[in-house]
Amino acid sequence: MIKEKESVWTSWNENIKHPFKELFFVKTEEDLQKVIREAEKVRFFGNKQSSADICAGVASLIDIREYDQILSYNDNNREITVQAGIKLQDLIEAVEAKGWCIPCLPDINTITLGGALATGTHGTSGKIMADYVVEFRVINTDGTITVISEGDELIDTYRVSLGVLGVISTVKIRCVENYTLHLHEGPEKDNVWLPRIKSDLKKYEFLRILWLPHTDTGYVIRGKKIDPETPIQENLGPAYLKHRRTASKILYKYSHKFPWITYIANNILYKAFFSSKKEHKGSLYQATVTKSRGSTIELAEWTIALDKFPQAFEELKKVINSWKNDSFIHIPMDVRFLSADKSWLSYAYKQDTVTLGCVTRNAPTADTYEAFHTIEEVFLKYGGRPHWAKRFKAKDEELNKLYPKWNEFKELRKKLDPTNKFLNGYLGKLFNEEV
Ligand SMILES: Cc1cc2nc3c(=O)[nH]c(=O)nc-3n(C[C@H](O)[C@H](O)[C@H](O)COP(=O)(O)OP(=O)(O)OC[C@H]3O[C@@H](n4cnc5c(N)ncnc54)[C@H](O)[C@@H]3O)c2cc1C
Fold first, then answer.
1. Which residues of the chain have pLDDT under 70?
2. Is 121 touching ligand 1 by the criterion CB < 6 Å?
3. pLDDT score of 294
4. The whole model's pTM is what?
5. Pairing label, strands 133-139, 145-149
6. Cα separation of 331 and 95, whole Å?
7. Is the CB of 166 under 6 A from ligand 1?
8. How many angstroms does the Cα of residue 112 sit away from the middle of ligand 1?
């Protein structure tokens, strides 16, 4: 097990930095157990792509990315068991090679499975990824192992755990048979796509809206399952569409100094990159997940009960369109949908949910991006829940109002980790604990 000493941990986009005393690169479960058992305070990380300060900030760190093997398949049940450091790309490619699919994938494939599960990572038109897990093997503070399986009462606690209940060692995921989606994409005015949400969710197996703030328009992606052999009129739009992210980066370059530039930039980006229609087909992974990104971004995301979304959305729109503040928002705001589940810290705990992303493409100046505060203010008013891996300010008191099981989760955490071994400063504030 290689160890690095006395250096600085840096997140993906360099917005978060923390000194550490020792950093371990683990490859086996025994290594993981040993480091955890012996450390006084320890955090562990995957691909460091979270915008929230949830990975480091303590003396001992574990890089889990080389703990990434596929351990077994169960063909009868379409189950795959893997080590938690596996990159999503490797996991999904292995699953697709079997003719299987994890039915709700995030729009990123470079993150680790452990990082995805711990933070409630999700896609659209299904459940959060962690809901497809049927068994977790978790390492406790003293290095012992707990296995939590489908049917165990505690599994709904461990599904989204921010890595504060233990380190996820291995995971068994139950997949479904792979399927082909026939996708239509194109712009629609807000007064067209917004009232259609509920009927679209019934009619389509895939629904995602890339909302284009300051244009009154959403770029709507609807997908229906089809037989893979069904012929379609493929239309991938003009070749220059692939330059959208570069163009955005350039257009938003000075938007931190002059936020109103965003209004002009968004209207240019809308006309150039979101005004044509597309039609294509493919698997959920091949046809809908972004495979590479040229630059870093900084994110917030708020989630809200489906029934409350239209009202919260209209209020947010009013605030950001007012020009009396600097809450201009970069394109796009990702609108996605989750079905209700039972995971204690899930965004969709007991409610069908809409998620709304908020991005700045100018990551180094994210601290002054007023939109992050505005979206939080508006969504908190409607009982919105923040994405654990992204930017938000709410702490224990507010979270207790948003998550019915918050206090029970806190009690369990305290029981499993009485010395707060797994808490860094940020997580300490979140759970109202001295660290
Ligand atoms: C470009 C981009 C696109 C994104 N798209 C989506 C999306 O579509 N949907 C969505 O929901 N989110 C999305 N995210 C958020 C992303 O899924 C989370 O930030 C995820 O946690 C990143 O995984 P990671 O491997 O980088 O984890 P890290 O950021 O390294 O770690 C995240 C957390 O997981 C914990 N952790 C890591 N491994 C383990 C383990 N084995 N056991 C217990 N805890 C562990 C860490 O301690 C930390 O608290 C996106 C982020 C980016 C930057």
1. none
2. yes
3. 72
4. 0.96
5. antiparallel
6. 32
7. no
8. 7
